[in-house]
Design goal:
The protein is of the alpha+beta class and about 375 residues long. The chain has three domains: about 55 residues, no CATH class; about 220 residues, no CATH class; about 90 residues, no CATH class. Helices cover about 40% and strands about 15% of the residues. The chain contains twelve helices and 16 strands. Strands 6, 9, 10, 13 and 16 form a five-stranded antiparallel sheet that branches. A three-stranded mixed sheet has the order 1-5-4, with no helix packed on it.
Length: about 375
Amino acid sequence: MRIIKATSDIFDIQTTKMPKDSRELNHKKIENLALLLNKTSFHNRKDNKALFFLNDKDRKSSIKPDFNKVDFKRIENNMEEIKSALSLQGFEVKSICMSPEWRMIIGLGLESVYETSMTLHHVYGVPYIPGSAIKGVVRSYIISEIFDHKEKEAFNNKVFCDIFGCPEKDSFYKRAMRGRVVFFDAMPIEKPKLEIDIINPHFGDYYKEKGFRQPGDYLQPVPVPFLVVQDTIFKFMIGVEEKYNKECELGELNGKLSDLVWGWFKSALCEHGIGAKTAVGYGLMKEEESKFSVSNNVIEEKITQPFQDDKNIADSIIVELKDKNCKEERISEIANKEIDNVHESFRRGIAELIKERWIELGKWDSGSKAQQKRVKKIKSFLGE
C-alpha cells in the first residue's frame, strides 16, 4: 500500500458516536487532537469501524490535526520556568532538545477505539513523551547494558536503586523506596509533524483461523494504519535534589548522580530509541538546538524574587535550628507558626531539622498534648 498525502479532512460530527444533543451543536472543527481522536472518532458507515484514515482508490482523506493555536514557545518557556524554580529549591536540573532521526510512535498499544493509538497531551492535544516512558527506557537500557538483562542483580546495586527506586524484598535497601531522579514529560517545542504509517500483517487469516488456513502468499495482506511523529523537536528534562546528587559510579560512567544519569539517558535515546518498533529504527533520537530564545531575564523576574524571599526566610530558620543552643521554646515557635510562612518546597527540610532536634530533646515520642499536636503537624510535612 502506497501512502499518499491526505487531501481532505474526514471529520464530520454527524458520523461520530457522540450523543444526539452533542451532534446537534454542529461543531465544524475540534482543534484539540486528543479530543478529536478519542472522543469524536470517525465511523465508517459501511462497517461501523472507527477510523482516522480513509483510502478510497485515488482519493485519500484523514483526520487532519490543527496545532495553529498551540503556543509552543510558551510551552518551552514554561519548562524553563520550572527548571529555574526547581534550581532555587535545591535541584540540579538538566535539559536538552532532541528530535527523531526518522519516525517515532509513543503509545502504539494503548487502549483505543482504533486498532492502534498514540499518546496525546489531554490539554494541548499534541503528541508528547511521558516521563514514565523516558524513565522506563533508560531503566531498561541500563539493565540490558550493565546487568545483562538481570533485574534482580540491578536491584542489589545501590546506584540503580537511588536512580529508579526499588521494592521492599530482594533489593539493596531492603525497603520500598522511590527513585531520587525525576524524569519530566518531554514536550514538543514546535508544531508536530504527523504522518500515517502502516503495519502490514500478511498472515492475518492464519492467526485468526489457526489450523484452517496455512500461511502463504495467497493470503491477502490487510494494512493497519497508525500515526507517527517525525521532524519534531522535543524538550527533555531530568532533575535530582542536591542532597542526593553525590559522586557515584554505574557501569562505565562515573561522577555526580545527575551527570551519570544524563549520560545513560542520552545513550538510551540515541542508541536504543524510545517508543514502539525501535527494533526497526523507530524512536532513535538526535540532539537539536531550541528554535526559540528563552529570555532568562524574564524568567528570573517572574520566578526568582518570590522564591528567593522564601528561601532567605527558610535559610535563616535552618541556621537557627542547626545551632545546638537553639532553645526548646524557639523550636516550638518555628513549628507552630513560622514553618507555615515559607513556601511548601522548603518545609520538608525545616521539618526534618525540627524532628532531629526534638529527638535529641526527648520530645518526639512524648510530651504534652500541645507537643503531640506539634509533632503530628511536623509528621504531616514529612509524609509520616
